[in-house]
Prior knowledge:
The protein is an alpha/beta fold. The chain contains 10 helices and 10 strands. The strands form 2 sheets. Strands 6-7-8-3-9-10 form a 6-stranded mixed sheet, sandwiched between helices. Strands 2-1-4-5 form a 4-stranded antiparallel sheet.
Amino acid sequence: MTETNKAKRKSEALAISGLDCFYGEVQVLYGLDLVLNKGEVLCLFGRNGAGKTTTLKAIMGLVPASAGSIRLAGQELTGLPAHEVPKVGVAYVPQGRRLFAEMTVAENIEIGLMARGKGKAVRENVLDLFPLLRQRLRQRSGTLSGGEQQMLAMARALCLEPKVLLLDEPTEGLMPSMIAKIRETVSKLREMDVSTILVEQRVDAVLSVANRVAFIENGRNRQTVGVEDLRADPSAVRRYVGVG
């Protein structure tokens, strides 16, 4: 391996190459290539059905890879059962949050801690990120507002102390003040060297926290651009998302 390749590999938190995925006999991802660098926020944009959520599910082992590679800091993930993927440091907040609605905020956080055997120190660090949740610890999660539920879903995922965080449309249905809090948290996580893949439909909601943007179309990564380049020339947003 050349020195250039070694440096490149060292900067990668997650690397996907040649990934094919199917739902039954229907192919959804076609040779997808994607690189998430350490400590960056990479946004996946694209129309509905483009393959964005499938990409996250494939990383988590929830959709099997029929071809290709998914590597976390050099470790191959495609052979791991889905329940093992969080244990190696990948956390997933799915669209719709999927909290245990009848359980309290504290109990949902405890479940997150159990996944990698984390304790009180991690719990306190997570609650420092979401101080509002400290006031809601005894409240059933199903009675929280949408924004509070999103915070709890992120807090539960961060109890893993992940190297990589996958967020699927975290701002969906939230009021602007809550969207701002989600953005603020993602920025703080970057400062903590957590690498994040963020799936979104609303470009304006997350562009301020992104480092790069990958445009997914028909199960392929058509283009990956830096945010400053995208601001200078937003034509890719119109081409692949249909807005802008």
